[in-house]
Structure formats: C-alpha cells, structure tokens
Amino acid sequence: MNLYASLASFKAFINNLDNVEESTLLGVLESASRQIDAVADRTFYTYEDTRIYDGVSDRELLIHDLLAASLVEVDSGTGFVAWSLSDVSFQPTNSLPFTRVTVARDSGKAFPNCRESIRITGSWGAGDLRTSSPWARVVGAATVDAISNVVVVTDMAGVSAGQTLRVDAEQMYVQSVGESDINVLRGVNGTAAVAHGDAAVFTAIYPAEVVQSCLWLAGVLWRELNQAGLSTERIGEYSYKALSSEETAKTLSRLLGRVKRWG
Predict the structure, then answer these.
(1) DSSP characters for 203-236?
(2) 36 with 214: CB under 8 angstroms?
(3) With contact defined as beta carbons under 8 Å apart, do 13 and 25 qualify?
(4) How far apart are CA 151 and CA 28, in angstroms?
(5) Which residues, including other chains, have CB under 8 Å from residue 195's CB and lie 6 or more apart?
(6) Going by C-beta distance under 8 Å and a sequence separation of 6 or more, which residues neighbour residue 138?
(7) Which of 12, 48, 98, 245 has its CA 20 to 30 A from that of 133?
C-alpha cells in the first residue's frame, strides 16, 4: 500500500481542498499512483516477496525490478535448493534496480530450463532508482505494540496521511495523523507487524518525476471528479476545458520518460 505523493503535498499543490473528505483525496492519489505504475511499467514502492520464474536460459534470467536479494533457490528436480548469492550476479552492476540475474561463470551451475524453477526472495521495486534502501529519516521515533493501528510518534514533523513509513523492518501506511499519534495500516508491502520501542521512523523516497507526475495526475483526476465529468465549464470570463484521456496519457508518458522501464 502506498501513494507517490502525500495528502499534505497534494493540498499544497491544489488550492481549496481543506473542506474535502481526506478519504476522497487519498483515493484520487491512489488512482494516480497506480496509473503511474502502469505507464512506467514498474512499481517505485518497495515490497518484500518471493517471486517465482520460469527457467528460459541456463545462464541469464530477466526479472522484475529488484533492489536487494536475500535468497536464490533453484529446482533440483527433487525440490528447491538454496544457492549461495556468490553463485549469481545481479545486473546491471553499476545502477539500480537490478533487472537481470546471471549465473556466475566460475560457479559450475546453470539455471534449469523448466517452468517455475527459480525462486528469488528479496526487496522488490524500483525505489528512487539510486539506492538499495530508498528511505529518508523522519524527525521523531515510534512506539507501538504488535497489533495496534495507532502509533505514538515523538515528533510529527514530516509525517502526513498517504505516506508509507518504515519502522525497523516493518512498513506502515499512514491513514490519518493526530496531534501526537498516527493511524496506520500495519505490515504492508509484504512486511510483518511487530512491536517497536522508540524506533527510528523513515519515509519512502521516490524519483522527483514520479512525485510531480502523481501530483499533476491527481489534480487532473480531482478536477474531473469535482466537475462531475463535465468537459468544459465557464465562470464569467473564465473558461475551463478538461484534458481528454488521450492528452492526459501523452502528458503522463512524457513526464515519466526518464523513469520508465524499457525492455
């Protein structure tokens, strides 16, 4: 669960939203975020998971965006066997995220050419396209047990509804913010809800193009929703014409050009 722009940043981007239900605005931001994923052909949020791949080459495998791997397992014919991470090499070697994995030439191993024969466990997603841990420290620390949805934070500066936070290894989605605590969804994006005591709070980092695209597209979607689908509106001398779906798609594609996944 994640949004590429927070509620606070959207309210700063679009005027006169203070009297609108926050759940409505968060829904608009979520719709914009998922459309960005579709256009960019990748997700920028990070999630913990095990992905299973078909073996189509004995030495190279094309994979989803990967920031860090913790386990590689290969079907031996009688079950999955864990390989040492030194048996493989993640590519490209000079940038993130990884999009391919190759068998190390001196390992004496090969990928099997059969369905669902390779499993990779790790941290997936494109992140900020620069670091393996795309998280920035937020002022304050969090305390919460393993089940509560209300997290006490020592300093609320920098925390807003719509953000995804990381506390220790757990990710939490911020639903609303109070004076000294936040209401969250626990254990999102493949992480587990556990107790935290005075733990550092981090917020997800995304490429600037993704954040700006989310704000722009959410603004377009909000105007469409607010105008009940009207394509044009005139107020005195002012006339407003909504973008067509084709124009919106072209603009979004241009905005995301640098951060798209190609091939």
Answers:
(1) EE---HHHHHHHHHHHHHHHHHHHTTT-SEEEET
(2) yes
(3) no
(4) 25
(5) 144, 145, 146
(6) 157, 158, 159, 165, 201, 202, 203
(7) 12
DSSP letter (8 states) at residue 143: E
Closest Cα partner for 138 from 204, 203, 46, 207?
Answer: 203
Gyration radius of the chain over CA positions: 21
In angstroms, the Cα distances linking 206 to 5, 67, 189, 200, 255 are 9, 14, 16, 19, 14
Tokens read off for 75 = 């079907």
CA 239, CA 192: separation in Å to the nearest integer?
51
The predicted model gives 16-33 an average pLDDT of 92
DSSP 44: -
The three-class DSSP label of residue 174 is strand
The span from the CA of 61 to the CA of 74, in Å, is 12
With contact defined as beta carbons under 8 Å apart, do 215 and 255 qualify?
Answer: no
Residue 243's pLDDT band (cuts 50, 70, 90): low
pLDDT at 51: 98
